[in-house]
Amino acid sequence: MLHIALDAMGGDRAPAPEVEGALLATRQLGVKVLLIGRPDRLRAALQEAGWTTEPIEILPASEVITMDETARQSLRAKRDSSLRVGIEALKQGLVVGFVSAGNTGAIVAAATLWLGTIPGIMRPALAAVLPTSSGRGTVLLDVGANADCKPAMLDQFAVMGAAYAEQVLGVDRPRVGLLSIGEESSKGNALTREAHTLLSQHAPQRHFTFVGNVEGKDIYTGEVDVIVCDGFTGNIVLKTSEGLATALLTLLREAWTQSTLPSPEASAKIQQVSAKFDYAEYGGAPLLGVSKPVIIAHGRSSGRAICNAIRVARDAHLCRLTHQIAADPAVAAGLHHPHCNGVAPELPKLA
């Protein structure tokens, strides 16, 4: 039975959704979950949730990193945080994956510093799966781990995103696009133009198809399987998408309830659309490029979302995702790149 570590204290409403998600995962996925946090609170939450014989273990952690703390401050000050205990369990091989709905910046920093990146990877990237009109999700990365990027980093993001789409999502020879302000290779800023050149040069040796530049209007069509951008742009796209989806679904529900002839068929259709745009269905964003599976879930994750994040961690391990990424020639080439140091420059090395 595979063991997955879950930061049970990091989310906005912890630990109730984490406990619910852990129970769902043990029943549906056949994994053992190691809940990390304050034992008294976790035992109480487990009892309230009806825990009986499900394979769940508690790893004690006396401290919690909150959402408003900086990565530098929290990682240095809180040596017994649920985040650090979970990352350490993954590093030691006690578990095959780690899931947290906590402070994204702290998770990215901790995973990079304490687990290290795959040899050759310049920086890890957060990948989010966005719904599309075709019914097949599109992987967008980076969505927040790196606000400032180099062209070679975007080239590697393409490799990592394609590997995830192929190995975890089951896409055969993924189509990869570079997010820009126009389809022509000359469009965009210096970063996208140089990244386009690199992606085009490496295209013949790749296990994916580089289709060139894509625009914002192409994100939700499903015509490409992976879209690459810097973390600043990707995070704006992700947050805008969440807000727009929420607003549109609210308007749809209001229109349906105010209709003079509401029907069960219409209600079912609205529920189907809602499910497509529900982040809970996708679970969490994998931090691609670190040496072991780390999944970052939404801070407001429900139990179902936590369960799906655990599923992503399990699948990433089973398909040997990190090995698939490491096998790409562009990753090996990154070993000689000046930006390949595996450590965010603004963070100190921690013991």
What global shape is seen? globular
Radius of gyration: 20 Å
Summarize the helix and strand pattern as letters: EHEHEHHEHEEHEHEEHHEEHHH
Low-confidence stretches: 338-351
Terminal residue distance? 31 Å
User: Which CATH architecture of the largest domain?
Assistant: 3-Layer(aba) Sandwich
The number of distinct structural domains comes to 2
Major beta sheet summary: 11 strands, mixed
Give the fraction of residues assigned to helices. Answer: 40-55%
CATH class (first level) name of the largest domain: Alpha Beta
Counted by DSSP, the helix tally is: 12
Structural class: alpha/beta
Strand content: 15-25%
- Would you report the number of β strands? 11
Mean pLDDT: 86
The quaternary organization reads as single chain
CATH topology assignment of the largest domain: Rossmann fold
Molecular structure report:
With 351 residues, the protein is α/β, with parallel strands linked by helices. The chain folds into two domains: 1-121 and 289-351, Rossmann fold, CATH 3.40.50.10950; 125-283, 3-Layer(aba) Sandwich (Isopropylmalate Dehydrogenase). 42% of the residues lie in helices and 15% in strands. It is built from twelve helices and eleven strands. An eleven-stranded mixed β-sheet has the order 3-2-1-4-11-10-5-6-9-7-8, sandwiched between helices. Helix 3 packs across helix 5, helix 6 (151-167) crosses helix 7 and helix 8 (231-257) packs antiparallel against helix 9 (264-276). The longest helix has 27 residues, at 231-257. The chain is globular, with a radius of gyration of 20 Å. It starts with a strand and ends in an 18-residue tail after the last helix. Residues 338-351 have low confidence and may be disordered.
